[in-house]
Amino acid sequence: MNYIAVDFEWNQNPYGKEAGNKRLPFEIIEIGAVKLDEHAKIIDRFDAVICPRVYKTLHWLTTEMTGFTEESLSKGVPFDQAALDFLLWCGEDYMLCTWGNLDLLEFQRNLKYYKILDLLEGPVTYLNLQKIFKKFYSREHAVCALETAVDFFGIKKDKVFHRAIDDAVYTAQIFEKMDRKKVLDNYTVDYYQYPTLRKDEIQLYYSDYSKYISRGFRTKEAAMGDKKVIQVCCYRCRQEAERKVDWFASKTRNHYCIAYCPIHGYLRAKIKLKKTDDNKVIAIKTVRPAGEEVIRKILEIKKDVTQKRRERRSHGDKESGDL
């Protein structure tokens, strides 16, 4: 298998988000990628500058960060051609590597906008090196920019940042420095192309947590009413755990639960409900171990939510009494 370290640069509406195209908030203007063999050695490179069709005027931040001008982009190729060339260049047996999760999300949005999303079969399994770096190498860094990891590993900064091909090279060099087993054991599944059937729902188990990605539901209520969505299984023995603090919604709209596995102890489960581009709702559930501090925080969140609910109910009763 080859690994493809890829980076994308994009432009956005220079007049603000509200004036932009809702189906394409960010338009890709450069694809840069580096192909690595099974030993993480660079064997090939790909770079394509893209002529924009949606946002032909550059946002000032795009120009400042990338150095592109409208004139230089006008000489680029159409996105659909660049995307096809890139995916053909990737070959048959490969795994994408990115710095963060936004690149792959926006790439798929661009593919969908140009009606060629079928070129990249999803849900896409990939390596999010930023997430892995934060987990194993530099937890004290609140912001994990690409340059942070470059400095951490002592990689020579002989290229600019915020150009796709150069950032892809840096990403490849970071991949080479990382412990390969840690990286490959912590792969990620992107859910922009979410499961549509129950049989295709995704269940992932890692050494310290598990992750579940549901199929699409019509409403949030339908998602939280599904037995599999709200079921809590131990991330270690994979047996169903007993819910001690049942699911409740926090003020951030995440749902939490405390469960107990008789073999491995208390667990904290969290469900994030995400609305898709086609107005479906998917549930992303994670299950992690829960020590005393975690349990205390969850109970505090539940107490706060319950108190605010009572206050709203009391306020509503008073208003009704005044009528």
pLDDT averaged residue by residue: 94
Beta-strand portion reads: 25-35%
Low-confidence stretches: none
Residues in helices, as a percent range: 25-40%
Given helix and strand content, the structural type is alpha+beta
Give the H and E element order.
Answer: EEEHHHEHEHHHHEEEHHEEEEH
Largest sheet: 6 strands, mixed
N- to C-terminal separation?
Answer: 71 Å
How many beta-strand runs? 12
Please explain how this structure is put together:
- With 323 residues, the protein is of the alpha+beta class.
- The protein has helices spanning 60-66, 70-74, 79-90, 102-113, 129-136, 146-152, 164-177, 180-185, 220-224, 227-230, 292-322, and strands at 2-12, 26-36, 42-49, 94-98, 124-128, 188-190, 202-205, 210-213, 242-249, 255-261, 265-275, 281-289.
- The strands form two sheets. It has a six-stranded mixed β-sheet.
- It is globular, with a radius of gyration of 23 Å.
- The N and C termini lie far apart (71 Å).
- The mean pLDDT is 94.
